[in-house]
C-alpha cells in the first residue's frame, strides 16, 4: 500500500513538472535554441514545399520535428555536421509537423524526429528516431556519389 501511494506521488510530481514546463516555459523554436542548425537548414512549410523541395536539383533531406520533442532537440546538434559536410551535394530542410500537417501526412510521419530524403519527387530514404542519422549518412553517400 505504501509503495502504491509513493508511486502515485512520484507520478503526480512528474506530471505537474511537465505541465508547468510546457505552460510556463513553452517549447522553443529551432532558431532560438539552435541558431547554427536553423541557419544551415531551410524551413519548409505546406506552402513553400513545391518551390523548395520539388524544384531542387539536389537531393533534399527533410527533418520532420516538433518544438515539443526532446529527441528532436538531441538530433539537431548531431545532424548539423552532416548537413555542413554535405551542403554542396544536398539541401537540408526542416518541417515542423504541427505547423505543416499536410506534409507530415503526405510522408506518413508517425513519430518525430523522422528524416526523409527526396530527389526529384522520389523518396530515397525514410527513418525515424536518433538511429536514422547513421543510415541517412549511407543513403546520402549513395545518392550524391558521381554517376559513371
From TrEMBL:
UniProt keywords, alphabetically: Signal
The keyword Signal is annotated on this UniProt entry: yes
Pfam families assigned: Thioredoxin
Domain of life: Bacteria
CDD domains: TRX_family
Segments forming domain Thioredoxin: 28-145
Segments passing through the bilayer: none
GO molecular function ontology, one term from the record: protein-disulfide reductase activity
GO cellular component terms given for this protein: cytoplasm
InterPro entries, alphabetized: Thioredoxin-like_sf, Thioredoxin_domain
Secretion signal, residue range per the UniProt entry: 1-21
Keyword Signal listed: yes
The protein's name in its UniProt record: Thioredoxin domain-containing protein
Species the sequence originates in: Rhodopirellula bahusiensis
Amino acid at each position: 500500500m505504501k509503495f502504491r501511494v509513493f508511486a502515485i506521488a512520484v507520478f503526480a510530481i512528474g506530471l505537474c513538472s511537465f505541465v508547468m514546463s510546457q505552460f510556463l516555459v513553452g517549447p522553443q523554436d529551432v532558431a532560438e535554441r539552435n541558431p547554427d542548425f536553423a541557419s544551415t537548414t531551410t524551413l519548409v512549410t505546406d506552402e513553400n514545399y513545391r518551390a523548395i523541395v520539388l524544384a531542387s536539383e539536389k537531393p533534399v533531406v527533410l527533418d520532420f520535428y516538433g518544438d515539443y520533442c526532446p529527441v528532436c532537440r538531441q538530433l539537431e546538434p548531431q545532424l548539423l555536421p552532416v548537413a555542413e559536410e554535405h551542403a554542396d551535394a544536398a539541401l537540408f530542410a526542416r518541417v515542423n509537423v504541427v505547423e505543416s500537417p499536410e506534409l507530415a501526412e503526405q510522408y506518413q510521419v508517425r513519430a518525430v524526429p523522422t528524416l526523409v530524403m527526396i530527389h526529384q519527387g522520389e523518396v530515397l530514404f525514410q527513418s525515424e528516431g536518433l538511429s536514422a542519422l547513421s543510415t541517412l549518412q549511407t543513403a546520402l553517400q549513395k545518392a550524391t556519389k558521381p554517376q559513371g
